Automatic annotation (TrEMBL):
Biological processes, Gene Ontology terms: transmembrane transport
Species classification: Bacteria, Pseudomonadati, Pseudomonadota, Alphaproteobacteria, Rhodobacterales
Family: Belongs to the binding-protein-dependent transport system permease family.
Species assigned in the record: Thetidibacter halocola
Membrane topology: Multi-pass membrane protein
UniProt xrefs under InterPro entries: BP-dependent_transpt_permease, MetI-like, MetI-like_sf
Compartments where located: Cell membrane
Alphabetic keyword roster: Cell membrane, Membrane, Transmembrane, Transmembrane helix, Transport
Protein name: ABC transporter permease
Alphabetized PROSITE patterns for the sequence: ABC_TM1
Length: 480
């Protein structure tokens, strides 16, 4: 079986077009930038949203050329993916990978179609699709979310087992065929093999599952802690604010990487500190949900009891199962529905502990500003309880900055997870997470680029997508 080229038979048609468009697009963009510095806009028209656009002159021509060439370049790139998804390995490595991602493409298309169709009914999320930057960022993030989902639940994306080693595939280049593939085994290493003869493409795909499973959920828990403590600190002020702010500043005084390093070192893990921290930190979602429901339905006892039971009982069982792990210091609960690997739990708790103080500071500042608004005074005049005002009057009006920070913080957490994996801390050494894979590949970086480059680009793309998504949400929240 012959090795795959990058574009296969598809490249005979599209490669010349691509090589022709790329330099033209670069020249058009450079001309547009230079002309904007030296040439005034000779013809300007107003858009419906109040922005101005050049329609004539040299600058207008450069703008039209760069936009047109950029659109053509995008069409060519989409043609590589679309035709490759149909042709598969005949379209080379790109086509084979695109075919593996077919479930992701379908899920993305359905998500965009439904979101754009009903965007006026979806609040801030729907308004995201009025922002080009936000749509691009959302697409990149959801690509990895769907990849992790289909790879973890259905095992549809990866071509090989991320831990399996194939004879003769050590440090093989992308597109290399297996020497003696068994029946039902994918016959190529699409992105080559690493120094242990494992498939780089499959490890990149499986690594997304590790990141998507930890980063958003750990960030959400950190927000539960920060919101639960930041609301009363900003609303009441006084000694409570002083005490909580002092504790937050005390944690923030440590460098983040150093604090992570201390929390995940084996000596600290053996003391059981991560389990004890989980006992405390994992209580905050329960507290937040309970106070939120009680503040809303306090005057309706039957509905209050119903919602508290429906929400808190399952959350309590999950909480007890999460903190009660085998071979840990916390084993007081007989029912254990699932097990979290000790390395994952340690990293998860560390992310929550490190991010919660920053979220606390943000929430506290927002509450101190919003509590002076007229609608808060009106709620106080109506006789509403403080927690109702904090959770149902102040918090919804602080959602814009918090959602933006949530997206950015997931990106920071992704980088931290990559850093921990790169230094071999917290996660198991055979883990396919992107940081560990980059570390495995960088040892031969001067000879082979392919083991380290794909996970590095994957990490870069996810963080870039989260930043673009945050920018889009920021734009729309400011208009809201």
């Amino acid at each position: 079986m012959d090795p795959l080229t990058w574009t296969g038979s598809l490249g005979t048609v599209l490669n010349p077009v691509l090589f022709f468009l790329v330099p033209l697009f670069g020249v058009a963009v450079a001309a547009r930038i230079l002309l904007s510095l030296v040439t005034p806009e000779t013809a300007v028209q107003s858009n419906p949203d109040g922005t101005l656009v050049a329609t004539g002159g040299m600058q207008g021509g450069a703008r039209m050329a760069s936009n047109g060439l950029g659109l053509l370049l995008l069409v060519v790139l989409l043609a590589y993916l679309a035709l490759g998804a149909v042709m598969g390995p005949q379209a080379g490595i790109i086509g084979a990978m695109s075919q593996q991602f077919v479930p992701v493409w379908i899920a993305l298309a359905a998500t965009y179609a439904l979101s754009i169709r009903y965007k006026r009914r979806l609040g801030l999320y729907g308004k995201l699709f009025d922002s080009t930057i936000g749509m691009i960022g959302f697409g990149i993030v959801m690509f990895w979310v769907f990849t992790a989902f289909f790879a973890g639940v259905f095992d549809w994306i990866a071509t090989q087992d991320s831990l399996s080693q194939m004879s003769g595939m050590k440090n093989k280049l992308p597109g290399e065929p297996l020497a003696q593939p068994e029946d039902g085994t994918y016959p190529w290493y699409l992105l080559g093999g690493d120094n242990l003869a494992r498939d780089v493409f499959s490890r990149m795909v499986e690594g997304s599952l590790v990141v998507i499973a930890i980063a958003p959920l750990a960030t959400l828990f950190a927000f539960m802690v920060g919101i639960t403590l930041g609301l009363p600190a900003g609303y009441y002020g006084g000694r409570l604010d002083t005490l909580l702010s002092f504790l937050a500043n005390l944690i923030l005084a440590f460098p983040v990487i150093l604090l992570f390093y201390l929390l995940v070192t084996p000596e600290i893990v053996l003391t059981g500190l991560p389990q004890y921290m989980a006992v405390v930190l994992f209580l905050f979602p329960l507290i937040f949900a309970g106070v939120l429901i009680h503040a809303r339905y306090r005057t309706q006892p039957p509905r209050n009891a119903l919602w508290l039971s429906v929400v808190l009982v399952p959350m309590a069982v999950i909480y007890l199962s999460a903190i009660n792990e085998p071979e840990s210091k916390v084993t007081f609960w007989p029912l254990d529905l699932f097990d979290i690997p000790s390395g994952i739990l340690t990293v998860f708790v560390s992310v929550v502990f490190v991010n919660a103080p920053t979220v606390f500071r943000i929430v506290r500042g927002l509450v101190m500003d919003i509590k002076t608004r007229d609608y808060v005074a009106a709620a106080q005049t109506r006789g509403e309880r403080p927690w109702y005002i904090m959770l149902w009057e102040i918090l919804p009006n602080a959602r814009g900055p918090l959602i933006v920070d949530f997206c950015l913080r997931i990106g920071y957490t992704t980088i931290l997870l990559g850093t921990l994996g790169f230094f071999g801390l917290g996660l198991p050494p055979e883990s396919p997470d992107w940081g560990t894979t980059i570390n495995d590949g960088r040892r031969l970086l001067s000879i082979y680029l392919h083991p380290a480059l794909p996970p590095a680009l994957a990490l870069l793309s996810l963080v870039l997508g989260l930043n673009l998504l945050a920018d889009g949400l920021r734009e729309e929240s400011l208009r809201d």
